[in-house]
Amino acid sequence: MSDLLNRLGYLQTRRDRTPNLDLARDLVAREDMAGIREIAQNMHNDNKNIHGDCMNVMYEIAIIDPNLVTSYADDFIKFLKSKHHNMVRGAITALAEIAKVKPEFVFKHLDEIKKVKETGPDSISIDKSISALAHMASANDEYGKAVFPYLMQHILTCHHKEVPEHAERILPAVNENNSIEFIKTLGKRMEALSGSDFTRLKKIVRIAEKI
Question: 54, 39 in Cβ contact below 8 A?
Fold first, then answer.
């Protein structure tokens, strides 16, 4: 096993993800493209613990600097069909970050992202798919017109407890042309909320009113 892979949490017999995060930060700091390539290749490792840790490193890199992992965007799309939930979750997390710097790629794979939103293996995957769609929609009018109505329909139909979280994630896609629609849509869900959820949604409305 290479010195780089030996830094993974699993190979250090660690149960926490701190070694993976440390490795990601180190690779970013050094802009070590060869090291990132090795980690990316091992997302396909036969050992599920190694490929899981490598996915963890890759999406942590994406969170810090998505430009360093755009070359592996196609790999992340393929992992959306993985039978391992952690690989789906990691891939959509990375794609949500890539959407900020390469929205055209995410738009090209709109159907795959929507499928995660609709059938995601867990709440984090669904949350991240909404972020990916919102960041992509914010790039230009074409993408916004194609995706914003879909996101508003989601707000109207999702569980009331999810409304504040998802509305917050959609905020990057809100602009002066669609803010009124956004506010009206949130207003339709307001009466079902109370306590901290109501307060959080009101804060999001106030932010949208200033756009």
Answer: yes
Which parts of the chain are beta strand (E)? none
pLDDT of 95: 98
Question: Measured between alpha carbons, how far is 206 from 211 in angstroms, rounded to an integer?
Answer: 9
Hey, what amino acid is at 51? H
The 10s digit of each residue's pLDDT in 33-51 is: 999 999 999 999 999 999 9
Rounded to the nearest 5 percent, the helix, strand and coil shares of the chain are: 80, 0, 20
Nearest to 106 by CA among 127, 85, 131: 131
Residue 20, CA atoms < 13 Å, CB-side half-sphere: 23
Altogether, the residues listed in the chain come to a count of 211
Cα separation, 181 vs 204, in Å, equals 13
pLDDT digits (tens, 9 = 90+) for 140-166: 999 999 999 999 999 999 999 999 999
Give the span between the Cα atoms of 206 and 19, in whole angstroms: 40
